[in-house]
Amino acid sequence: MTRLGLFGGTFDPIHNAHLRLALELKQLCQIDDMRLVPAHIPPHRSTPHCSPQQRLALLRRAVENCPQLGIDERELHRHTPSYTVDTLQELAAEVGSEVSLCLCIGGDSLVNLPTWHRWQEVFELANVIVAVRPGYELPSQGPVAQCLAQRRIDVAQLAQHERGKIAIADSSLLDISASYIRQELAARRSAQFLVPDSVWAAIVQDGLYMPTKNTKK
Ligand SMILES: Nc1ncnc2c1ncn2[C@@H]1O[C@H](COP(=O)(O)OP(=O)(O)OP(=O)(O)O)[C@@H](O)[C@H]1O
Ligand SMILES: O=C(O)c1ccc[n+]([C@@H]2O[C@H](COP(=O)([O-])O)[C@@H](O)[C@H]2O)c1
Predict the structure, then answer these.
(1) Does the Cβ of 174 fall within 6 Å of ligand 1?
(2) Is 213 exposed, middle or buried (CB count within 10 Å of its CB: 0-12, 13-18, 19+)?
(3) pLDDT of 180
(4) CA Rg, the chain, in Å?
């Protein structure tokens, strides 16, 4: 069975930790097709600083030299909040039953999963792969702990389950966040080396996230 990996985010902007996580999970979990899925209207945060078009342009730059990673633009074409369950439903109908959907998230997103729109339905459509640092303490109480007790498998068992399971994957998780990058740029400091060189060149060229220029198009 083919595995289609989906790594969603606001990507405001995409940075090296996102890219490294996507690449590590693709390799570790033997994902055949790994796609970054930029959110148009992220459900649980305020409007992103850059427009969807600007964030997409940076994503395209980020993966231009990385054939292992692709971009799925479907959320950008929807004008409703970018609920993951809607994306998975659309994809499941499109790819058919021979493809196992693997939703990839960071450990910080796992703890918020029960607040997602129709979150239990995610498991009817996909497996969830959670990237955590080695030694990360998973929740021991509450809905996430219950969900793990019912659904947890090892990464090596993904092949036996098309959907409905959670695999915890050790990952390096670089200590970079988009908010730190935005904060540095707003203070006129450099964010070089936190993002790919191609992304950095575009940020500088267009003055993105910097105080003097208007970043909305
Ligand atoms: N440093 C990181 N290492 C691994 N995963 C990350 C890291 N930062 C974000 N993620 C994961 O990437 C996905 C998309 O994150 P997002 O686009 O919100 O980036 P962010 O850097 O967390 O942004 P912000 O700082 O604006 O909140 C989420 O699943 C999140 O868990
Ligand atoms: O479906 C939801 O209700 C939901 C709630 C919060 C976040 N998400 C998704 O989780 C991913 C990371 O979100 P964020 O806000 O951390 O960039 C992104 O793909 C969002 O669409 C999804």
Answers:
(1) yes
(2) exposed
(3) 98
(4) 17
Tokens of 1: 């069975």
* Domains (range + CATH), the chain: 2-206 (3.40.50.620)
Mutate to test the pocket of ligand 1, among 11, 18, 71, 122 (most ligand atoms within 8 A of CB): 18
Predicted local confidence at residue 34, as pLDDT:
98
User: What pLDDT is stored for residue 134 in this prediction?
Assistant: 81
Q: Which residues of the chain have pLDDT under 70?
A: 213-217
Q: Which ligand is nearest to the CA of 183?
A: 1
Instruction: State the pLDDT at residue 214.
Output: 54
Give 93 Cα–ligand 1 centroid separation in angstroms.
28
Tell me the pLDDT tens digit for each residue of 33-81.
Answer: 999 999 999 999 999 999 999 999 999 999 999 999 999 999 999 999 9
From 21, 56, 128, the mutation candidate for ligand 1 (largest count of ligand atoms within 8 A of CB) is 21
Residue 54 beta carbon below 6 angstroms from any ligand 1 atom:
no
In the β-sheet with 99-106, what is the strand arrangement from edge to edge?
69-71, 33-38, 2-9, 99-106, 127-132, 166-170, 152-153
CA–CA dist 128, 115 (Å, integer): 15
